[in-house]
Write a structure and sequence with these properties.
Blueprint lengths: L10 E9 L5 E10 L4 E5 L6 H8 L7 E6 L2 E2 L8 H5 L2 E4 L11 H11 L4 H14 L15 H13 L5 E5 L7 H16 L3 E5 L3 H6 L4 E5 L2 E5 L2 H12 L2
Parallel strand pairs: 3-8, 3-9, 6-7, 7-8
Antiparallel strand pairs: 1-2, 1-4, 4-5, 9-10
Helix pairs in contact: 3-4, 3-5
């Protein structure tokens, strides 16, 4: 497949604008790409457009103008009937979780694997292992309405990563968990990244950003600024100082 070529970005935005009805422009002239296996944070004040940016990548909406390519495919040319197949390659952690209340914790996490047609024994093994990792093994038969916000968030994270997606988008994934669990979640994300998953994580958590030496995109008034990882900036300063 063409999108398996290493030189084709997983995500490619070209002059992308997004505007809701008659309101102000939310995202302005975005030009960037995500290389296969990259890991970036997205930062910005509340209302800066972080969630809107992720929703464009998840194919939840289309841009007002500009071109978006996902896995090498121009989204303007992809029929709506094919969008579910692209989404199966994308893991998403939504801020509002979007769990299915009529499914148990186990069933919510297993859902992507059922859709992929995986054998039941392998599904059970993977889901049990994942629920132990996020500390929900005792809640696997519980339904979302009886769980706390932090527990729901961990279900959403487990569901997003269980299928080892090509692209993982996470909107404030550590917002409702304590520091210890936040570190475990970031370790899980880093391990996925080492296996080839491309990650984009929107966060306000400066401690998470500090502990993880990754580049980031900063959104302000609809504009996107690329900020290199601290180690990249240090290397550039060092090289500049030795010339």
């Amino acid at each position: 497949m063409q999108d398996n070529a290493d030189n084709i970005p997983i995500v490619d935005f070209h002059r992308v604008h997004l505007k809701y009805d008659q309101g102000p422009t939310v995202l302005k002239n975005l030009e960037f790409d995500l290389k296969r296996g990259s890991f970036h944070f997205v930062t910005g004040e509340s209302g800066a457009g972080k969630t809107s940016l992720l929703s464009l990548m998840y194919l939840d909406q289309r841009p007002t103008s500009g071109r978006i390519q996902i896995f090498g495919q121009d989204l303007s040319q992809v029929p709506r009937s094919k969008i579910p197949y692209l989404r199966r390659r994308i893991g998403v952690v939504f801020q509002d979780f979007r769990l299915l209340d009529h499914l148990t914790t186990f069933e919510n996490v297993a859902l992507p694997l059922w859709l992929a047609g995986m054998k039941e024994a392998e599904i059970r093994r993977r889901v049990n292992e994942m629920l132990m990792w996020v500390g929900l093994e005792r809640n696997m038969r519980a339904y979302p309405p009886v769980l706390a916000g932090g527990e729901k968030q961990r279900i959403a994270i487990a569901r997003a990563v269980i299928n080892r997606p090509d692209l993982l988008l996470a909107d404030e994934p550590t917002g409702n968990v304590d520091d210890e669990m936040a570190n475990r979640i970031m370790y899980l994300f880093n391990e996925l990244n080492k296996q080839g998953t491309t990650l984009l994580i929107a966060t306000h958590n400066q401690e998470i950003i500090r502990r993880n030496d990754k580049p980031r995109f900063h959104l302000s008034k609809g504009n996107l600024e690329y900020i290199p990882a601290p180690s990249q900036m240090y290397a550039a300063q060092t090289q500049g100082g030795t010339r």
